[in-house]
């Protein structure tokens, strides 16, 4: 009995090794060709045919070039060794034909034939939201990404994003911090950390969440691959939330894909004057769901939209006297000390000197109520 | 016959008295100069020979030997022409040896016998005064410089003939320039400060920048200004000398000596009465900045001695150039070693750096800045950490608002700020009377522990700051130093929480500033 089990597993490994070989050798993006090959039999049969030179006669002249490429790729390629080596490095490979392949992705017209992943793939029985946005984000965006990442994770929602710098990485990081699950979809091999600065996030994702890519390990990041991986981000999610985006932004490519795939699109509004919120405001104008708090999004997802819950009060730290007054002037947009000085005078009719103001602000910082952004700029704390 | 004339030479800005000994005796006709003469000194032979001939002194066919003593010091420059010529005249018994007693002679000769100005007169005359010299005979154009010390009689002569006539006591025959008037230093300083066109009241808004400048000036802290283009960083830096205490006579002599050696005193024909303000372009070479050359000359940092050295666009300077500043910032002087000896120039300046926060200059304004966090990080990375470490105060300029330009609130004048700065400096002077340093900005870590004592409450506060801001030991000391100055400005011996809090705001966020 055990012997038989072992055998099937071995078969599986061997089968998958050949699948993996086929996926790489026949070119990942070439669906037609892959379908033709699948008709001929199992990948192993195809391998034998190729080695014996039968392939060309079976497929016909139009694939001559492709077959030559396959043969070229296979020269010196150890099918089993390469696959097992990859497994040893903790990288898994899953194909469309398998159970583990995300069902949501399968629906996709141009779903990848195979997926590489590290860690684990999202739990298909749980809900997922893609939190995406600009790489160069504002302090407001940073704050909101953190908040959404954390609160969605706390509510058991899986956060999917692109592990890019800015909104993507921040929301994923926050989700992991809240002991939630997060999946990073890369535009390069899963063994490559791009961007480099997200090294810590990359390792945490591999450990507590997941990282996946349709490209084989070792594939270097290339600009044209990133829009393609966006379709996977939106496909894996139940809804897409845009935190911050300019009018012409890569984020909006993901949104287009999401709409094509029939995913819900939500956007966080910003001020009309903020270039970084232009994209979001535009989306809302076009009919995207307007979201101002994680709770709202959770209600939307569970289909129980209740207006009374939508405005969740932020617990305000109660501070007395001037510190409290000053806190009411602070915003999620960094303001310089001089601006605060002028605004304070306008509102409370009292002139505060710079040293006094700096003292109060520093006290607020120590109370975790405010944050010093750069030397002379202060904002409300994002924590 | 033998003669001896006193002259002097400059090494760095320190001077040495040089005895010019001349011997004229029978033998094969020759004229030689010994005592390690440089090429300019060797050429004095030709200039002196022709000049003497042209003023009617006949040189007999004899053996002339000139020795510049001490003979082991290399000599350079043209100031020995006059003493050599006068020495020969004494040796030929045309002037009595007695005539040059306690007299310093300096000057370059032209072929017709006219005297031309030389560099470094001020430090030589200062040194001469210490050696008991009572008068100096100088080229007419240098006479005022000789008079600056006030202790030595300075005589300006136009040519060799006049010089000889003066030394012989025949004042009437030449038109020897009258002794220049004694220089009224205090009046000049007052005139300078009152007449200055640059004042802090010119700057509208930018309150936090002005405050930081005040603190920096009071404690002699180096200052780093960060801000978008056109936010007034340069404008502020240009006005920092106006809130520094006026130069004292002692300081002025130090500064003027450097300028004299560089030949820059000629333009103003007076002691420096204004604190130097130097703003070299960012393409400057290390040598121009620190001083150098085959025969070393003072660099920009020495010219900024006792004043402000402003480095605009700090991140555009070459890294190696900036790294040269590290040692002078520590030692307050710069040493240049050459085979001919080691030259020391003073370099005790206040460093003010200005830079944009990112390549485009608009960070953290998301509407205008499109730099990636990586670019921003790299931009700061161009400045070496050790240099940034020396900048106690880091402050940001914000873009100027329209109201700031249009609205003319009454702004504090430089004089008002200067008063506070001087009071704070007076406190420091009293406190550090028997220390080797003068200002809070110069305190080392050990001295910080000695002079910046904190109460229980303040200690608790700093503990919180330390944890929250993730300070290093160095950052901690920096905050204490600045807090000490802020307390001095507030006329408080005790450093209080409010002082510490403000100082903590000025800390350089360093890498954190540009957090992604």
Strand order of the largest sheet of chain A: 1-2-6-5-4-3-7-8-9
The chain-level structural class of chain B is alpha/beta
What is the residue-averaged pLDDT of chain B? 87
Distance between the termini of chain B: 83 Å
Q: Which fold name fills CATH's third level, the topology of the largest domain in chain A?
A: Rossmann fold
Architecture per CATH nomenclature, i.e. the level-2 architecture of the largest domain in chain B = 3-Layer(aba) Sandwich
Number of strands of chain A: 12
Major sheet: arrangement of strands of chain B: 11-14-17-10-18
What is the CATH level 1 assignment of the largest domain in chain B?
Alpha Beta
Oligomer: heterodimer
Q: Mind telling me which CATH architecture of the largest domain in chain A this is?
A: 3-Layer(aba) Sandwich
User: What proportion of the residues of chain B is helical, as a percent range?
Assistant: 25-40%
| Helical content band of chain A | 40-55%
CATH topology of the largest domain in chain B: Rossmann fold
Question: Would you write up a description of this structure?
Answer:
The complex is a heterodimer of chains A (383) and B (516). Chain A is of the alpha/beta class. Chain A has 3 domains: 2-87; 128-310, Rossmann fold (3-Layer(aba) Sandwich); 321-380, Winged helix-like DNA-binding domain superfamily/Winged helix DNA-binding domain (Arc Repressor Mutant, subunit A). Helices cover 50% and strands 12% of the residues of chain A. Chain A has 18 helices and 12 strands. Chain A has helices spanning 2-25, 31-40, 43-52, 55-59, 64-74, 79-88, 103-106, 139-154, 167-177, 199-208, 225-236, 251-260, 275-285, 294-302, 307-310, 321-329, 337-348, 354-366; strands spanning 92-95, 114-119, 128-132, 158-161, 182-185, 210-213, 239-242, 264-267, 289-290, 335-336, 370-372, 377-380. In chain A, the strands form 2 sheets. Chain A has a 9-stranded mixed β-sheet with strand order 1-2-6-5-4-3-7-8-9, sandwiched between helices. The longest helix of chain A has 24 residues, at 2-25. Chain B has 516 residues and is of the alpha/beta class. Chain B has 3 domains: 2-173, Ribosomal Protein S5, domain 2 (2-Layer Sandwich); 197-422, P-loop containing nucleotide triphosphate hydrolases (Rossmann fold, 3-Layer(aba) Sandwich), CATH 3.40.50.300; 438-509, Helicase, Ruva Protein, domain 3 (Orthogonal Bundle), CATH 1.10.8. Chain B has 23 helices and 18 strands. In chain B, the strands form 6 sheets. Chain B has a 5-stranded parallel β-sheet with strand order 11-14-17-10-18. A 4-stranded mixed β-sheet of chain B has the order 1-2-4-3. In chain B, strands 5-8-9 form a 3-stranded parallel β-sheet. In chain B, β12 and β13 (297-298) form a beta hairpin. In chain B, α2 (44-54) crosses α3. The radius of gyration of chain B is 28 Å and the shape is elongated. The N and C termini of chain B lie far apart (83 Å). Classes of the chains: A alpha/beta (383), B alpha/beta (516). The A-B interface holds A 135-139, 165-166, 195, 197, 273-276, 334, 336-339, 341-342, 354-356, 358-359, 361-363, 365-366, 372-377 and B 205-208, 211, 226, 357, 363-364, 366-367, 369-374, 394-398, 401, 403, 461, 464-465, 468, 486, 497-498, 501-502, 504-506, 508-509, 513-514, 516.
């Amino acid at each position: 009995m055990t012997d038989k089990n072992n055998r099937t597993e071995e078969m599986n490994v061997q089968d998958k090794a050949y699948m993996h070989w086929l996926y790489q050798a026949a070119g990942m993006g070439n669906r037609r060709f892959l379908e033709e090959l699948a008709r001929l039999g199992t990948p192993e049969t195809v391998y034998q045919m190729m080695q014996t030179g039968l392939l060309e006669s079976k497929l016909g002249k139009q694939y001559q070039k492709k077959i030559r490429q396959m043969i070229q790729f296979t020269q010196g390629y150890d099918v089993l060794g390469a696959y097992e080596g990859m497994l040893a490095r903790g990288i898994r490979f899953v194909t469309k034909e398998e159970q583990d392949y995300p069902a949501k992705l399968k629906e996709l017209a141009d779903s990848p034939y195979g997926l590489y992943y590290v860690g684990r793939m999202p739990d298909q029985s749980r809900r997922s939201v893609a939190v995406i946005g600009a790489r160069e984000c504002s302090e407001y965006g940073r704050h909101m990404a953190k908040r959404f990442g954390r609160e969605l994770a706390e509510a058991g929602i899986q956060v999917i994003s692109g592990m890019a710098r800015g909104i993507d990485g921040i929301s994923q990081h926050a989700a992991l911090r809240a002991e939630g699950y997060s999946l990073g979809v890369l535009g390069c091999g899963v063994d490559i950390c791009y961007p480099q600065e997200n090294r810590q996030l990359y390792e945490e994702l591999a450990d507590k969440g997941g990282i996946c890519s349709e490209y084989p390990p070792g594939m270097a990041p290339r600009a044209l691959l990133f829009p393609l991986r966006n379709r996977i981000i939106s496909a894996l999610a139940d809804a897409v939330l845009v935190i911050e985006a300019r009018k012409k932004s890569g984020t909006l490519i993901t949104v287009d894909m999401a709409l094509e795939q029939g995913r819900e699109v939500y956007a966080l509004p910003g001020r009309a004057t903020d270039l970084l919120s232009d994209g979001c405001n535009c989306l809302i104008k076009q009919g995207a769901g307007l979201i101002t708090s994680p709770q709202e999004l959770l209600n939307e997802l569970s289909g129980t939209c209740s207006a009374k819950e939508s405005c969740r009060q932020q617990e305000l730290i109660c501070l007395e006297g001037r510190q409290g007054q000053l806190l009411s002037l602070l915003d999620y947009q960094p303001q310089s000390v001089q601006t605060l000085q002028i605004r304070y005078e306008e509102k409370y009719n009292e002139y505060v000197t710079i040293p006094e103001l700096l003292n109060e602000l520093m006290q607020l910082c120590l109370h975790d109520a405010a944050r010093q952004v750069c030397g002379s700029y202060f904002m409300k704390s994002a924590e | 016959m033998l003669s001896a004339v006193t002259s002097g030479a400059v090494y760095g800005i320190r001077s040495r008295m040089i005895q010019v000994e001349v011997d004229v005796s029978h033998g094969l006709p020759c004229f030689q100069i010994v005592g390690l003469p440089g090429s300019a000194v060797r050429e004095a032979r030709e200039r002196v020979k022709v000049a003497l001939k042209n003023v009617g002194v006949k040189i007999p066919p004899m053996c002339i030997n000139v020795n510049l003593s001490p003979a082991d010091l290399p000599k350079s420059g043209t100031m020995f022409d006059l003493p050599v010529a006068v020495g020969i005249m004494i040796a030929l018994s045309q002037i009595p040896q007695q005539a040059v007693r306690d007299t310093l002679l300096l000057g370059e000769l032209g072929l017709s016998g006219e005297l031309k100005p030389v560099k470094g007169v001020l430090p030589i005359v200062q040194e001469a005064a210490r050696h008991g010299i009572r008068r100096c005979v100088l080229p007419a154009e240098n006479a005022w410089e000789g008079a600056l010390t006030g202790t030595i009689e300075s005589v300006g002569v136009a040519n060799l003939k006049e010089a000889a006539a003066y030394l012989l006591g025949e004042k009437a025959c030449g038109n020897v320039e009258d002794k220049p008037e004694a220089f009224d230093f205090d009046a000049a300083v007052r005139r300078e400060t009152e007449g200055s066109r640059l004042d802090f009241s010119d700057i509208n808004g930018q309150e936090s920048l002005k405050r930081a400048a005040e603190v920096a000036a009071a404690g002699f802290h180096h200052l780093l200004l960060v801000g978008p283009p056109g936010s007034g960083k340069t404008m502020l830096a240009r006005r920092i000398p106006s809130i520094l205490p006026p130069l004292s006579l002692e300081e002025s002599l130090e500064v003027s000596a450097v300028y004299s050696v560089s030949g820059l005193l000629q333009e103003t024909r007076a002691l420096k009465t204004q604190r130097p303000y130097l703003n070299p372009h960012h393409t400057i070479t290390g040598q121009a900045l620190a001083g150098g050359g085959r025969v070393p000359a003072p660099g920009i940092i020495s010219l900024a001695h006792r004043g402000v050295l402003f480095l605009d666009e700090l991140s555009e300077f070459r890294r190696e150039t900036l790294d040269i500043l590290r040692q002078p910032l520590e030692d307050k002087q710069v040493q240049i070693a050459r085979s001919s000896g080691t030259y020391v120039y003073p370099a005790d300046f206040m460093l003010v750096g200005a830079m944009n926060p990112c390549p485009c200059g608009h960070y953290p304004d998301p509407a205008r800045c499109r730099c990636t966090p990586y670019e921003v990080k790299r931009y700061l990375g161009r400045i070496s950490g050790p240099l940034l470490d020396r900048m106690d105060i880091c402050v940001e300029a914000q873009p100027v608002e329209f109201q700031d330009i249009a609205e003319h609130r009454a702004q504090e004048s430089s004089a008002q700020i200067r008063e506070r700065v001087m009071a704070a400096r007076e406190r420091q002077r009293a406190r550090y009377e028997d220390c080797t340093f003068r200002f809070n900005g110069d305190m080392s870590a050990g001295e910080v522990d000695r002079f910046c004592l904190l109460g229980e409450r303040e200690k608790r506060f700093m503990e919180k700051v330390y944890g929250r801001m993730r300070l290093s030991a160095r950052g901690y000391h920096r905050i204490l130093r600045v807090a000490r100055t802020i307390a001095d400005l507030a006329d408080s011996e005790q450093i209080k929480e409010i002082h510490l809090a403000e100082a903590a705001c000025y800390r350089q966020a360093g890498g954190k500033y540009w957090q992604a």
